[in-house]
Amino acid sequence: MPLCVDNKADSRVSDACSALDIQLLPSRDSFEAINRKGNLNRMAQQSSNGSRPKLSEKGLLTPDNCVVALIDHQGQMLFGTSNFDRQGIINNTVAFGKAARVFDVPVVLTTVETKSFSGNMWPQLRAVFPGQEPIERSSMNSWDDKNFVAAIEKSGRKKILIAGLWTEVCVAFPTVQAIHDGYEVYVVEDCCGDVSQLAHDNAMKRAIQAGAKPVTSMSVMLEWQRDWAHKGTYDAVMDIVKNHYGAYGIGVEYAYTMVHGAPATKFPEYAVPVALAAHK
After folding, report:
1. How far is residue 37's CA from residue 172's CA, in Å, rounded to a whole number?
2. What pLDDT, on the 0 to 100 scale, is given for residue 13?
3. C-beta of residue 192 within 8 angstroms of C-beta of residue 212
4. Which of 45, 84, 172, 174 is 20 to 30 A (C-alpha) from 138?
5. Distance of alpha carbon 227 from alpha carbon 230, whole angstroms
């Protein structure tokens, strides 16, 4: 069972992950197909960045038809989150950000009242997007901020993947208004959180009733990958899986080493940090 969030009360998240189980681990045939179909992949129609096959849409997300919005993943907002495991939210959001980087999906980062209340965007997330400054806002609703809306419009995409804290305000408000303005919105639920389970659940109901579609970070990444024979992104996806998706990642490692005879994954060795200056 892949790890999404450590919360048994929210069946939508766990059910979404369970539905993927039968397709998550690459089979022996898939490993063989990676080599067998390599030449076919190079002949396939390429995406906008020219390094991966262009995927069919037919109602699905592709790396070429969507934009990601990560809203208010900040310290104070996480302090008040209680419906999901907070470390799980950090883990899933970082994994989702990495997936967006792997597939070259445009990402809009935004924060609210950084200095006066909310604090900085998590350093773990900033590290995924070095050099990209979040759009700072005073408005609770990012859709009220002209710079945020301009960044979404600049992407040229009409499908928005939204994640943020808290669900009932910073996710629900822009979701409802973006849909009103003609966008198709997907709420990445395991990268969201709220002050209570009730608040989160009601926000998700409101978003869904407005027309949004609930997804998870892993379901989106696999929707972008779509085929294990797509070698250009395969290794990067497996790296995210092994670093962030718990039992699924361990299952992949087991399949690699015990079934396919691959060498064990080497993670960076831990080095104890050395104090560079005296603490105040």
Report:
1. 42
2. 39
3. no
4. 84
5. 6
Q: Quote the pLDDT of residue 152.
A: 98
Q: Which residues are catalytic?
A: 170
Residue 172 pLDDT more than 50?
A: yes
The conformation of residue 265, written as its DSSP 8-state character, comes to: P
Q: Which two tokens stand for residue 21?
A: 């189980």
Instruction: Report the alpha-carbon distance of residue 48 to residue 98 in Å, rounded.
Output: 19
The arithmetic mean of pLDDT across residues 162-190, rounded, is 98
Phi–psi pair at 94, nearest 5 degrees: -65, -45
Residue 52: what pLDDT? 80
CATH superfamily, with its number, for domain 1-280: Isochorismatase-like (3.40.50.850)
Rounded to two decimals, what is the model's pTM? Answer: 0.83
- Write down the domain spans for the chain: 1-280
Tell me which amino acid residue 68 is. Answer: V
**Cα distance between residue 72 and residue 164, in whole Å:** 6
**CA distance between the termini of the chain:** 45
Q: Where are the beta strands (DSSP E) in the chain?
A: 66-71, 107-112, 135-137, 159-164, 184-188, 213-215
